Amino acid sequence: MSKVWFITGSSRGLGRCFVEAALSRGDRVAATARSVERLQDLVITYGDAVLPLAMDVTDRAAVGAAVQRAKEHFGRLDVVVNNAGYAQIGAIEELTGQELREQLETNLFGALWVVQAVLPHLREQRAGHIVQLSSAAGLMAMPLGGAYHVSKWGVEALNEALAQEVAEFGIKVTLVEPAGFATRDGKNPDPLANGHMAQTNPAYDGLRQRLAAVMSKQPSGDPAAAAQALLKIVDADNPPLRVLFGQGFYPMLQQVYAERLQTWADWQELSAEAQGAR
């Protein structure tokens, strides 16, 4: 049976590939973007199967209106993909309060507004699947990405709690944690050279150079392959709460989690003292 999707950030990158993969197999999609001009070719190809909706995820009222429009148009919602977002880059000392607030408004609060708008419909159906695009950056932190990490660690916690709250209603939740994907001209987006950059402090120039050398060695994933993988997740009877897309960060994550466990173990005696245990 075909599914009805609601996908944010649909005009480019992974979001666009998710839309195309769903439509190409006969599903229907409410595709949202701040500007729907880039979606018009999909309307020409797929007709009424795609509903382009102009929407900024930071506008809570607009999100609610778009979700209601999609529900009225298609009659139900089966898969909701929170994909819209961006990366704010800068050392903690370099960030302005406004830059951090805007990062959270899009990546965290934008995701929250979508979830809150769709939940009444999914609960009524007693079915549905919410897919949150997180990142390997939601599982560990690296220098110069503090704002982005805060937002992605936030959506990790938000959706882990959400999964436990809505399971009794038949609603599934999956956090997709991509590594690097070739979403711009066949190349990985370089967050240190493109997009949202804080005003730089020369004290961190050496760190920027070292990190750029590390990031340049990360393998590029194929967005079309990621879209096919997402289809398997939403079709699964028992989808995962978390899944990595790409293997580039897996060894690093293994090391990070092993070090965390070891540190807690090494300091257990102090932990007991802090509780007043004897």
SSE layout:
Layout: E1 4-7, H1 13-24, E2 28-33, H2 40-46, E3 50-54, H3 60-74, E4 79-82, E5 88-89, H4 97-125, E6 128-133, H5 146-166, E7 171-178, E8 196-197, H6 205-215, H7 223-235, E9 242-245, H8 250-266, H9 268-275
Parallel strand pairs: 1-2, 1-4, 2-3, 4-6, 5-8, 6-7, 7-9
Helix pairs in contact: 1-7, 3-4, 4-5
Describe the strand arrangement of the main beta sheet, using strand numbers: 3-2-1-4-6-7-9
Q: Into which percent range does the helicity of residues fall?
A: 40-55%
H-E string:
EHEHEHEEHEHEEHHEHH
- The gross shape turns out to be globular
- Count of structural domains: 2
- Mean pLDDT equals 93
Helix tally equals 9
CATH topology of the largest domain: Rossmann fold
Rg is: 20 Å
Label the structural class: alpha/beta
Q: Low-confidence stretches at least 5 residues in length (pLDDT < 50)?
A: 184-188
Provide the CATH top-level class of the largest domain: Alpha Beta
CATH architectural designation of the largest domain: 3-Layer(aba) Sandwich
Largest sheet: 7 strands, parallel
Compute the number of strand runs.
Answer: 9
Could you name the key traits of this structure?
Rossmann fold, 7-stranded parallel sheet, alpha/beta, 48% helix, two-stranded parallel sheet, 278 residues
